[in-house]
Amino acid sequence: NRDGFLTHSCLNAFGPSLGPRFCSEGCITGSSNDMQKLNELIFSEPDSTLTVTD
Predict the structure, then answer these.
(1) Rounded (5°) CA angle 53-29-12
(2) How buried is 52 (Cβ within 10 angstroms: 0-12 exposed, 13-18 middle, 19+ buried)?
(3) Going by C-beta distance under 8 Å and a sequence separation of 6 or more, which residues neighbour residue 50?
(4) Coil, helix or strand for 41?
(5) How far apart are CA 7 and CA 24, in angstroms?
(6) Cα–Cα distance between 54 and 44 in angstroms, integer?
(7) H-type helices in the chain, by residue range?
(8) What are residue 7's DSSP bridge partners?
(9) Beta strands of the chain (E only): which ranges?
């Protein structure tokens, strides 16, 4: 279940954004390959919990 968090790939996931919408603000971001790995992990463990901390 993906309720409660957003994921997307981003060219500069951890760098500054040039526009007013910052890529990593409020989202789980990473490279396209990293997002694919995360999706595979989530789908392989259907009853698991993802906890995001700062």
Answers:
(1) 125
(2) exposed
(3) 5, 42
(4) helix
(5) 9
(6) 25
(7) 32-44
(8) 28
(9) 7-9, 28-30
Whole-model pTM above 0.85? no
Task: Kindly report, residue by residue over 8-33, the tens digit of the pLDDT.
Answer: 666 666 666 666 565 656 667 777 78
Token reading at 38 = 């995360």
Long-range contacts at 16-23 (CB < 8 A, ≥ 24 apart):
none
Of the candidates 11, 10, 6, 4, which has an alpha carbon nearest to the alpha carbon of residue 27?
6
The counts of H helices and E strands in the chain are: 1, 2
Place of tokens 């971001």: 29
User: What whole-number distance in Å separates Cα of residue 13 and Cα of residue 2?
Assistant: 20
